[in-house]
Design goal:
single chain, 6 helices, globular, 311 residues, nine-stranded mixed beta sheet, alpha+beta
Length: 311
């Protein structure tokens, strides 16, 4: 139990605790989770991480649970597209998680980055060292890594304000008639699960907006370029399925219910982050990257080979 001092008046409670317990191995993310679980209270009341303290407030903190947060460096190949002393741009392979989860502590991009042994930001905690944004396990392509906390916060803000542009390639089932379109449907977690998403009822869920543009139509498939106006979990996959055009190979969102004359075996969804544009957090230069076809993942390469053979 701690009584607030003058120097922390009108300061967010999560920020204050980070300062008061600077000698304890606590991250802001962990503090926020403790607050959400009710393990940190002010004047015996539950609060939000954004709650601003006042002189005389009493902060109560339950016993801090020790967690095994040790992330083991692992030798996993990294496809580095660009690197300097502030950032990395990587081409993430499929079948690899972006960062550790409670059920998967190994084999992730963070494990690989720790083995690569470069400087990494830590504003999101040890389990998300360097990770500015994430890609699904079986979504490949371009991902930004921050080496410094300053770069991390700058890039994170660019993504949140959509001044950083990210575009995806997706192969979807069926032929989309319109050359381009917008899917504006809020999302919620399906049946309270932590992974699968579903379209929310009116006035519920998180706002989600997806823009798509048809690049090429095949007999019963469509190649689309997708841009996100919001960055929700599984947004592209759930949105495309909601208009009856699930991403090819995406068994979680109904692709098994569709058949195609172009039958290519894939490791789940044919979805790739293939373009990114942002302002360099230190120099202010405009940075633009687009994957060449020789850097596409193996599933996309097999798909385009199959397309050429079918013609």
């Amino acid at each position: 139990m701690m009584k607030l001092e003058n120097t922390l008046n009108n300061i967010r409670v999560d920020t204050a605790i980070l300062e008061l317990l600077s000698d304890v191995n606590l991250t802001r993310t962990k503090i926020q989770k403790m607050i959400e679980r009710g393990e940190i209270r002010v004047n015996s009341k539950t609060i939000k991480p954004s709650f601003k303290l006042k002189i005389g407030d009493i902060i109560e903190i339950d016993k801090i649970k020790e967690e095994n947060t040790l992330i083991i460096p692992e030798k996993i190949n990294l496809d580095i597209v660009y690197e300097d002393e502030f950032i990395l741009v990587l081409n993430k392979q499929k079948e690899i998680l972006t960062h550790p989860t409670p059920l998967n502590k190994t084999g992730t991009l963070v494990n690989a980055l720790l083995h690569y042994d470069c400087a990494l930001s830590d504003v999101q905690g040890d389990e998300r060292r360097g990770i500015v944004h994430r890609l699904d396990k079986n979504t490949s392509g371009l991902i930004l890594i921050a080496k410094t906390n300053e770069a991390h916060l700058n890039l994170q803000k660019q993504i949140q304000t959509k001044t950083a542009k990210r575009k995806y390639l997706a192969v979807v089932h069926g032929t989309i008639d319109k050359d381009e379109g917008t899917i504006d449907k809020p999302l919620v977690h399906f049946m309270n699960k932590t992974v699968k998403m579903n379209i929310a009822k009116e006035n519920e869920g998180l706002s989600a907006v997806t823009l798509y543009k048809v690049l090429e139509r095949y007999e019963d498939l469509t190649l689309v370029e997708v841009e996100l106006k919001t960055g929700r979990t599984h947004q592209i996959r759930c949105h495309m399925a909601s208009i009856n055009h699930p991403v090819y190979g995406d068994t979680l969102y109904g692709a098994k219910g569709f058949k195609s004359k172009i039958n290519v075996k894939t490791t789940e969804q044919l979805l790739m982050s293939y373009y990114i544009n942002f302002t360099h957090p230190k120099t202010g230069d405009i940075m633009e990257f687009k994957l060449d076809e020789n850097r596409y993942d193996d599933d996309f390469k097999r798909f385009f080979k199959a397309i050429k053979r079918s013609r």
